[in-house]
Amino acid sequence: MSEFDLIHQYFTHPTPSAELGVGDDAALLRVSEGKELVVSTDMLVSGTHFFADTDPFQLGHKTLAVNLSDLAAMGAVPRWATLSLSLPSVDEDWLQRFSEGFFSLADDNGVELIGGDTTRGPLNLCVTIMGEVPRGKALRRDGAKIGDDIWVSGKLGQAALGLANLQGKVKFYGEVRDECLKALHQPQPRVALGLVLRGIANSAIDISDGLIADLGHILERSHVGAEISLELLPIVDDGVEEDIAQRCALSGGDDYELCFTAPASQRDVLAALAEQLKFPLTRIGHIRVGQDCVVRDGEGKEMKIEKGGYDHFA
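Structure (tokenized):
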């Protein structure tokens, strides 16, 4: 199978909103009037971001999901994506399953695949995603205000626990294991949450490298500090030792939940949104004067956090 046959068979999909999609030297896009273009790129590398034997349907899902999570953190509507693949060989069964996983999530979120590239080499996957947000309305990292509440979506640390379980570092079983593995392999990007947070949140980020690390990016860009309570973190609370679940929530990474700050006046609004969206939004602390993030235990004592989050080059 040639490169062009591969693209035609597995990665050519309708693109009704693009002026020109797959099949030419480049795509042609028309951004809606009054909107700004939001662009993000993520790469997934075999052996670093996923196991080589990962189910290809789940991998197709995750390849797009991690990029959708970036758009969610900006409050953007997903529109288009490009996909570049480095493949060791042409495995048609693998490609069929991978493309099914990718397009299943793409179709659910209105994303059109408009181009990309394929080459022979170690298994690497790279998506560039594009979305739109009303001019001046994007959620950003630099808007946190002193006194803001700090919120997170969903449950933290599940993906890190799932990875630790697969690596034999932590043993747990049953439904909690299934949930953690699903969080690792098929994260659910919080696109709907990002859209409704426009005008409510002052700042936002997606949690990909761990809560402490990613909240730290908000603090750095906003020139503020933070204080969070360990006991308030939404963690796995069944079948896993509490201290392990807490460590994974603080610095495990791969959650793809949103961390955001909002004025205290928005608490009732956010409680109603959690009911509407059918997943938890949890207030875990507040923004304060300073530069660092203080984590307090159940007795109010400041904790020493040895590892802040994942770093590819640390």
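Confidence is low (pLDDT under 50) at residues 310-314. The CA atoms of residues 151 and 162 lie 23 Å apart.
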